């Protein structure tokens, strides 16, 4: 009976599961049917456009060998574009924005393949006008079908179609394009130099204008941009889109060089004037969020030291200095009461960070000065607390100054200082001047105080004339200099656009490396056999940022993908460089020097290596790091998944090195170029 019951139960379970199997199979059939329908529709649309334009340009309806060859080349390019762009996977659930981008990307790839095929095979007898006209016309018919005829499921509140387009701005931008096309192109070909190719090219410029605007949301920057840098990035993509599509069309149509130059001049002039108009119309309206990470970071950073009665955090969470002979600060004004009237709020906050009663007034120094004599005149190892209310931006030879402060502090003594981060500099311009004037002045301030000191050619000029006063220093650089000089940051607080910090003397300064501001720099990484190697990279972080890696990790931990969360060390332009993989190019030098192989585990710092298990740390050192890590093949989301991904790669590499590296390289290229995966 028990066996019979089990049989009956299993049969019942199987019977109940059959409808589910049928439903799942039905869903798969529907998906496949829709994919087949998309392929058939794609073939019909481009067959219609190609046949129409071919017979129109040839003035005949005869199907000959030239028609068959041209159609074969045309459909091959369309198929490759559709395959690489994954166009056949589009469904009604996809947003209109995604559909427009996918179809436009498919067009771009198809044009590249058409150019390559015609040049590689040296084909000149097949009409190019028909093929190019059919390509663009097919795209617009597909857009009409997918975007207009098929209803789409859009995300709530994110439907781009529901946003009211600024018709005035569209007409103005279209007028600018028309004026440049007329004076640089059309005026020279009307009426005596009539050329059918050039008139078609003018039409294609307008079509490229529409396509690029739709994919980058050119005319609604305030609705889609997350920051001014993001708006700038979208505008650049818009202008590059027009120029690239037009250039490919000119190459395919074999436009003469002088005439092609007129088209390029027209597009360059339009891009410049149009970008200025966009800045004047929308720059003020787009909220700048580029400093959000820094602002988020400006909150109390709590050390994880055990609360004891020896120099460190007490039970109230405040840092104190406890010695044998201490004349306590019973009242705050015993420090230097003349500063309290102007800096009362600073000392109030300071009292929440430090246990002021634990510091000896006889061993406390409070100044407001940018003169190094205030520090150098003091005896070594004589103060428990040093406070300088003047911003570090005006200190001459800043690192030397910090080292001198450290020298006059006792062990575990505290330095309280002030810093004006450069993101607050921009805010001050906005408070003092009108928006346009503030941006103009800040532009020159940026060039003089942030660009000139970083370039080897102009660095000496800057320091000669500036006398190192009012230097532009980022928050990351300021904290990094403190750590570099032997301090450990306790807390940060922003008061009236000035950041006040408390840092404890914690060790010797890092003297084994001279720091440079150059765009290309070296980072110390763990190489094969645990030996240190220096990896070349293009700077995407503020100077001295690498010295506060522990600080950022302890405060913010990691986000998805293994990157530091809310990493204020990376400016917006650094994020853009990383997104475009520009920062990785100098690592080819390490590949040539054989410090790295082409595919392998990522070269990482000792601090990041410590996040792995002890076993994996030791195993990892037996292999040479690589330019293309397994991360980009597996795309792990946590430090545990990253370690698992590396273990999987190393296991396969030990069995078959060549095959493993080839497979991982192909997977990485597919994720980066086709699936648009990013590490940051």
Please explain how this structure is put together.
By secondary structure, the protein is of the alpha/beta class. The chain has four domains: 26-162, no CATH class; 164-289, no CATH class; 294-421 and 473-505, Rossmann fold, CATH 3.40.50; 520-674, no CATH class. Helices cover 56% and strands 10% of the residues. It has 25 helices and eleven strands. The protein has helices at residues 2-58, 65-85, 96-120, 128-149, 167-189, 196-216, 221-224, 228-253, 257-282, 292-297, 340-353, 373-376, 398-408, 422-432, 435-451, 456-466, 475-484, 549-556, 572-579, 588-592, 606-609, 614-620, 631-634, 639-655, 657-674; strands at residues 312-313, 319-320, 364-367, 383-391, 409-419, 487-495, 498-505, 520-526, 532-538, 597-599, 626-628. The strands form four sheets. The chain has a five-stranded mixed sheet with strand order 3-4-5-7-6, with helices on both faces. Strand 6 (487-495) and strand 7 form a beta hairpin. Helix 3 packs antiparallel against helix 4 and helix 14 runs antiparallel to helix 15 (435-451). The longest helix has 57 residues, at 2-58. The radius of gyration is 32 Å and the shape is globular.
């Amino acid at each position: 009976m028990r066996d019979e019951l089990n049989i009956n139960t299993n049969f019942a379970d199987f019977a109940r599961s059959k409808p589910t199997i049928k439903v799942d199979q039905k869903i798969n059939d529907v998906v496949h049917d829709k994919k087949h329908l998309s392929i058939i529709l794609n073939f019909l649309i481009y067959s219609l456009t190609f046949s129409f334009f071919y017979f129109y340009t040839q003035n005949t309806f005869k199907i000959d060998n030239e028609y068959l060859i041209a159609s074969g080349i045309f459909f091959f390019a369309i198929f490759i574009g559709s395959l690489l762009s994954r166009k056949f996977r589009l469904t009604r659930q996809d947003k209109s924005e995604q559909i427009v981008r996918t179809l436009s990307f498919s067009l771009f790839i198809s044009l590249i393949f058409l150019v390559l095929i015609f040049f590689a095979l040296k084909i000149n007898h097949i009409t190019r006008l028909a093929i190019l006209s059919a390509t663009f016309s097919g795209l617009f018919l597909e857009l009409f079908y997918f975007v207009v005829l098929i209803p789409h499921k859009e995300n709530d509140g994110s439907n781009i179609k529901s946003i009211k387009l600024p018709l005035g701005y569209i007409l103005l931008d279209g007028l600018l394009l028309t004026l440049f096309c007329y004076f640089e192109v059309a005026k020279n070909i009307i009426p005596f130099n009539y050329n059918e190719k050039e008139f078609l090219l003018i039409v294609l410029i307008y079509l490229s204008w529409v396509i690029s605007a739709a994919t980058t949301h050119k005319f609604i920057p305030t609705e889609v941009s997350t920051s001014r840098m993001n708006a700038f990035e979208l505008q650049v993509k818009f202008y590059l889109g027009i120029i690239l599509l037009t250039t490919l069309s000119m190459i395919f149509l074999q436009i003469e060089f002088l005439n092609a130059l007129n088209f390029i001049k027209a597009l360059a002039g339009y891009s410049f004037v149009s970008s200025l108009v966009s800045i004047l119309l929308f720059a003020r309206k787009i909220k700048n969020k580029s400093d959000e990470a820094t602002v988020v970071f400006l909150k109390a950073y709590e050390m994880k030291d055990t609360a004891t009665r020896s120099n460190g955090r007490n039970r109230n969470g405040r840092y104190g200095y406890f010695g044998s002979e201490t004349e306590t600060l019973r009242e705050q004004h015993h420090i230097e009461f003349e500063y309290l009237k102007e800096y009362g709020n600073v000392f109030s906050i300071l009292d929440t960070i430090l246990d002021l009663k634990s510091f000896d007034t006889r061993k406390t120094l409070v100044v407001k000065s940018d003169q190094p004599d205030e520090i150098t005149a003091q005896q070594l190892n004589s103060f428990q607390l040093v406070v300088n209310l003047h911003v570090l931006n005006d200190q001459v030879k800043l690192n030397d100054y910090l080292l001198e402060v450290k020298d006059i502090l006792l062990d575990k003594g505290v330095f309280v200082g002030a810093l004006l981060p450069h993101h607050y500099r921009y805010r001050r311009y906005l408070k003092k001047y009108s928006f346009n004037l503030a941006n103009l002045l800040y532009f020159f301030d940026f060039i003089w105080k942030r660009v000139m000191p970083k370039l080897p050619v102009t660095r000496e000029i800057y320091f000669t004339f500036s006398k190192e006063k009012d230097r532009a220093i980022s928050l990351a650089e300021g904290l990094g200099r403190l750590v570099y000089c032997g301090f450990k940051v306790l807390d940060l607080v922003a008061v009236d656009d000035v950041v006040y910090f408390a840092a404890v003397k914690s060790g010797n300064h890092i003297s084994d490396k001279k720091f440079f501001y150059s765009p290309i720099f070296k980072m110390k990484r763990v190489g094969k056999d645990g030996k240190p190697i220096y990896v070349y990279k293009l700077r995407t972080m503020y100077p001295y940022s690498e010295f506060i890696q522990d600080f950022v990790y302890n405060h913010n931990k990691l986000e998805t993908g293994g990157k530091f969360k809310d990493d204020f060390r990376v400016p917006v332009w650094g994020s853009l460089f990383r997104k475009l993989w520009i920062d990785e190019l100098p690592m080819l030098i390490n590949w040539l020097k054989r410090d790295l192989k082409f595919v392998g585990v990522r070269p990482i710092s000792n601090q990041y290596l410590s996040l792995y298990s002890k076993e994996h740390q030791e195993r990892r050192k037996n292999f040479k790091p690589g330019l293309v890590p397994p991360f980009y093949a597996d795309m792990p989301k946590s430090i545990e998944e990253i370690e698992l991904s590396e273990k999987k790669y190393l296991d396969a590499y030990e069995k078959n090195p060549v095959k493993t590296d080839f497979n991982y390289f192909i997977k990485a290229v597919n994720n980066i170029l086709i699936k648009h995966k990013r590490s940051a």
